[in-house]
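Example record used in the benchmark description.
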Amino acid sequence: MTEKREHLLDLLALGYARMGFIGKSPRAPGTCASLVTICLAPLIFLPLPPFLRFLFLASVYLLGVKACDRAERILKEKDPPQVVIDEFFGQLLVCLPFPQLEIWHLAAAFVLFRIFDIGKPWPVNLAEKAPGGAGVMLDDLVAALYALICLAALRWIVG
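Model output (structure tokens):
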């Protein structure tokens, strides 16, 4: 019974970490996950009141750390490309403080997050060195904070 339970937990962790089939994209799975997320944000995230947004992100993060940790062990690879729940989390974090985002804000949020997530400037590059699932999720948290600050500045400058 324990073996079946462990197998089921492995499948659930991989499914969550991969965002279902999105992480299986043959090209740029992280970018695909970010794009899907930013397209869904106006439907699933932005309508929520701030407190629920925060709770939603906190649960995605905590479950993400666990799922990514397990996925790394299953796939025998540090931060496997098919693990994309971190992009989901980071992309939504960029949107967290804004009550409304116009289409150009969403596009800017997507581009800015991808720049910082892929480019990994300091301290994003340090955050990814944390062990296990924490490192997978933490670098996207830091990249998202950079993107959030830049998006806030853009909104202030451009309107």
